[in-house]
Specification:
CATH architecture of the largest domain: Sandwich
Radius of gyration: 65 Å
Bound molecules: 2-acetamido-2-deoxy-beta-D-glucopyranose
Distance between the termini: 160 Å
Number of helices: 4
Length: 623
C-alpha cells in the first residue's frame, strides 16, 4: 500500500500547491520504426500565474529556442519542422496541463531527446529540463538468463515496446521446434509511464538445443510490419559418451587403442580407468588410451568416465587378451613312501583357460578342460608311481609343459627271475630285487649254516640297474647242491625273505634257444651241411659220428627238414673243425658229447651270465 500510495500523494501535493515549474514524462521510451509513440506528459507552473491561454512547443534534441532546434509541434500555430510535418499531434489538453504528444511513422532519425516548452503568455515561457529519450528500434530485445543448463526450466523473454495507442503488437516465438515442454505467456509492464509488452517462453532445454537460434517475432495487425529478434542458446550440459570401443579380443604383443568420444558443454575431464585405477585423463572431446605392447595384465574391464560441473557419465568395455598357457607350476612332494597318498597339483594360466593334463610314460593320467588347475590324487603310491611326470597345458594360442619327478621309496620286491640254476660245475642262485632305497641282499643256506652277502665278492656278485639289484651267489658243485636257499632283502621300509627255487639247466636248453635261436641253429647247420657235402667227396670219414636232436621241446616245422638233411649227412663227412671238437671232448665224456658253438656277440666272461637271457648261445648235444 505504502509503495503505490506515495507517488500518488506526491503528484496530488504538487498539483495542489504547484509552486514550481515542473514536467513529468518518461525519461526513456521506445518504439519500433514505422510505428508510433505517444509520450505521456504533464507539466505544472507556479499557481500565481493565471494564464489566459496555455500553449506549448515540443523541441527535438535541444531545450533552447535560440539554438533553433527542430520543432516537433507548436500548438499555437499547429506547425512543425519539415521532418515532423503531419507526423505529430498533441494528445493532451494543455489547459489541463497535459502535454502528451504522439509521433507517427517513426524512423531512426527521430531517435533522440524530446523537450517541452510552455508558453503561458508574456514572459511566462518556460522550457522544462525534464525530457523524454526516444529510442527507435527495429528489432525486439530477447533476453536470456546468464546460464542455460540442460534439463532445468528456462525462461526467455522478448521485450516489445507498447507505447503506440493506435497499434498493438502481436508477439510470437519463432524457430522453437525441438524445444521440450515449451509454453509462452505475455504481460504488460509499465515503467516510468512507458509500457513494455513482455512475452516469456518457458521450456526445458537439452543438449540438442545447444547452439540453436530462436527468437520472437512482432507483428501489428492490419499492417505488413514485422520485427524479429534472435538469440543463440549456449546450453550447458553434462557429458555424454558418444562412442567407446565395443568389447574386443586381442593377443599378447599387439598394440591397442581404445577411443572414448565425449560430448559436453563445457569440455569435460575425460578419464580412462581400469578397475578403479586411473590410467589417463585430459580435458578434451575425446581421449584415446594407447596400449603399446599388450600383455595378459591388460586383460580386463576399461571404463571411460567424463565429468564437468553439470554431471558425469561413464561407459565400460572389456578387453580380452588371449595368450598361451604359462609354464605350469607343479606342487607335489618329490618323495613319497609307498602306501602314502600323494597329491599332484598343476597350476597354470592362459586365456582361454587351457586343457591341462598330467602325463606319465605317455599315458594321460588326468585331464581337465577350461581350467587353470589340475589336481591328481594318488591314494596310495606304489613303486609303479615312481618316475617322471609331465604337466601339459594347451589352448589355441600354444602349449607349455613342465616335468617333475616323483620318487617313491618302497620295501624290496622279489622279481620272478630270482632262482637257482645247477650247471655242470656250479650252482648259481640269483636274487633279483626291486627296491628304493638300495636293499641289503643276503643269501641264507640253512643246511650249510651259511649266510653270505656281497661283502664276500668271491661268492656274491651284484649288479645294479635303476631300482633293480641282481645278486648272484656262485657255489661249487663239489660241496653238493644245497637243499634250501633263501634270499633276504631289506631296506629302511621293509624286510623280505624268499626261497629261491631250483631249475635244471639241461631242461632249459631249447627253451633258452627259443624260436629265434632255432632259426639261427638251422642257418648254421645248413651252412655246415653245405660245407660237409663239398668236402665229403674228397675225404672219407668214419660213419660213427652223427647229429641228433636231444629234445623235441624246441622243434617246429623247420626241424623235420633239418633232421632229414642231417640224416643224409650223418654217415658221410664232418668238417675238420667238428672232428677237432669231437676228438677233444671224447676222453672226458662218454655218454654225452657237446658241440659248443658260441654266438655271443659280446664277449661275456663271467660265469653266471650263462644263465642270463642276455647271452645268446646255442647248445648242440652230440650223442
Ligand atoms: C493526458 O491526455 C491523454 C489523451 O487524452 C490521456 O490519455 C491521459 O490520461 C491524460 N493524462 C493525464 C495525466 O490526465
Ligand atoms: C577402437 O576404436 C578405434 C576407432 O573406432 C579403432 O581405431 C581401434 O582400433 C579400436 N580398438 C579396438 C581395440 O578395437
Ligand atoms: C579426437 O579429437 C581430436 C582433436 O580434438 C580430433 O582430431 C580427432 O578427430 C578426434 N577423434 C574422434 C574419433 O573424434
Ligand atoms: C560409473 O557410473 C556408475 C553409475 O552411473 C557409478 O556407480 C560408478 O561409480 C561410475 N564409475 C566410475 C569409474 O566413474
Ligand atoms: C603346495 O600345496 C600345499 C597343500 O596343498 C600347500 O600347503 C603349499 O603351500 C603349496 N605350495 C606351493 C608352493 O604352492
Ligand atoms: C613340452 O614342450 C616342448 C616345447 O614346447 C615340446 O617340444 C614337448 O613335446 C612338450 N612335451 C610334452 C610331453 O608335451
Ligand atoms: C627327472 O628325472 C630324469 C631322469 O630320471 C631327469 O632327466 C629329469 O631332469 C628329472 N626332472 C626333474 C624335473 O628333476
Ligand atoms: C650250525 O650252527 C649252530 C650254531 O652256530 C649249530 O648249533 C648247528 O649245529 C650248526 N649246524 C650245522 C649243520 O653245522
Amino acid at each position: 500500500m505504502a509503495w503505490t500510495a506515495l507517488p500518488l500523494l506526491w503528484i496530488l501535493l504538487q498539483g495542489a500547491w504547484s509552486k514550481h515549474w515542473a514536467a513529468w514524462m518518461p525519461q526513456s521510451i521506445s518504439a519500433f520504426t514505422e510505428t508510433c509513440v505517444a509520450i505521456p506528459c504533464r507539466f505544472d507552473f507556479p499557481s500565481e500565474i493565471q494564464p489566459s491561454a496555455v500553449h506549448g512547443i515540443w523541441y527535438f534534441n535541444s531545450p533552447y529556442p535560440k539554438n533553433f532546434p527542430p520543432v516537433v509541434l507548436k500548438s499555437k500555430t499547429n506547425t512543425a519542422h519539415d521532418i515532423y510535418m503531419g507526423r505529430t499531434k498533441m494528445l493532451g489538453d494543455l489547459k489541463e496541463k497535459n502535454c502528451s504528444i504522439q509521433i507517427d511513422r517513426l524512423s531512426l532519425d527521430l531517435q533522440g531527446k524530446y523537450y517541452f516548452r510552455t508558453d503561458l503568455g508574456g514572459y511566462n515561457q518556460y522550457t522544462f529540463s525534464e525530457h523524454a529519450n526516444l529510442h527507435i528500434l527495429d528489432e525486439p530485445y530477447v533476453l536470456s538468463p546468464t546460464m542455460i543448463v540442460s534439463a532445468s526450466e528456462t525462461e526467455l523473454t522478448c521485450l516489445v515496446p507498447d507505447n503506440c495507442p493506435d497499434m498493438k503488437p502481436s508477439v510470437t516465438w519463432i524457430e522453437i521446434e525441438g524445444l521440450e515442454h515449451h509454453s509462452a505467456y505475455a504481460r504488460l509492464e509499465e515503467s516510468d509511464s512507458a509500457w513494455t509488452h513482455i512475452s516469456t517462453l518457458k521450456f526445458l532445454p537439452s543438449h540438442k538445443n545447444n547452439g540453436q537460434r530462436l527468437g520472437c517475432k512482432v507483428t501489428y495487425p492490419d499492417t505488413e510490419l514485422e520485427y524479429r529478434g534472435y538469440i543463440t542458446m549456449d546450453v550447458k550440459y553434462a557429458p555424454r559418451i558418444l562412442d567407446i570401443n565395443s568389447s574386443s579380443e586381442t593377443t599378447e604383443g599387439t598394440q591397442v587403442a581404445l577411443v572414448c568420444v565425449v560430448d559436453s558443454n563445457p569440455l569435460s575431464r575425460i578419464m580412462w580407468f581400469k578397475e578403479d585405477v586411473l590410467l589417463k585423463e585430459d580435458y578434451s572431446r575425446n581421449l584415446t588410451l594407447e596400449l603399446e605392447h599388450v600383455t595378459f595384465s591388460h586383460d580386463g574391464v576399461y571404463i571411460c568416465a567424463a565429468e564437468n560441473e553439470h554431471g558425469r557419465a561413464n561407459k565400460s568395455m572389456g578387453l580380452a587378451v588371449m595368450y598361451a598357457p604359462w609354464k605350469p607350476l607343479v606342487n607335489a612332494s618329490g618323495i613319497a613312501v609307498e602306501g602314502e597318498s600323494v597329491t599332484i597339483m598343476c597350476n597354470t594360466q592362459g586365456n582361454p583357460e587351457p586343457t591341462i593334463s598330467i602325463i606319465k610314460d605317455k599315458h594321460v593320467l588326468s585331464s581337465v578342460i577350461f581350467e587353470n588347475e589340475l589336481v591328481l590324487e594318488i591314494p596310495a603310491v606304489s613303486h609303479e608311481h615312481d618316475g617322471e611326470y609331465w604337466c601339459t597345458a594347451e589352448n589355441p594360442y600354444g602349449q607349455s609343459n613342465s616335468s617333475f619327478n616323483l620318487t617313491v621309496v618302497f620295501s624290496p620286491l622279489f622279481l620272478p627271475e630270482s632262482k637257482c640254476t645247477v650247471s655242470k660245475d656250479t650252482v648259481q642262485c640269483m636274487c633279483t630285487v626291486k627296491s628304493n632305497p638300495d636293499p641289503v641282499i643276503v643269501f641264507e643256506l640253512p643246511d650249510r649254516n651259511l649266510t653270505v652277502s656281497e661283502l664276500e665278492p668271491e661268492l656274491v656278485h651284484s649288479q645294479r640297474s635303476g631300482y633293480m639289484v641282481s645278486s648272484i651267489l656262485t657255489l661249487h658243485k663239489d660241496a653238493g647242491v644245497p637243499q634250501l636257499v633263501l634270499c633276504s632283502a631289506s631296506n629302511l621300509y621293509g624286510h623280505k625273505v624268499q626261497e629261491l627255487l631250483f631249475q635244471d639247466s639241461g631242461k632249459l636248453v631249447w627253451a633258452k634257444i627259443g624260436p629265434v635261436g632255432a632259426v639261427v641253429v638251422f642257418v648254421i647247420l645248413v651252412a655246415v651241411g653245405g660245407y660237409l657235402i663239398k668236402t665229403r667227396e674228397k675225404k672219407n670219414l668214419p660213419e660213427s659220428s652223427s647229429f641228433v636232436q636231444t629234445d623235441a621241446s624246441g622243434s617246429h616245422a623247420g626241424h623235420s627238414s633239418v633232421k632229414k638233411n642231417l640224416g643224409k649227412l650223418e654217415n658221410q663227412f664232418l668238417s675238420i673243425s667238428e672232428r677237432l671238437i669231437l676228438k677233444k671232448q671224447q676222453p672226458s665224456s662218454v655218454d654225452s658229447d657237446y658241440a659248443n658253438i658260441d654266438f655271443t656277440k659280446k664277449n661275456v666272461k663271467d660265469s653266471y651270465t650263462s644263465t642270463e637271457e642276455l647271452t645268446e648261445y646255442a647248445e648242440i648235444r652230440v650223442k
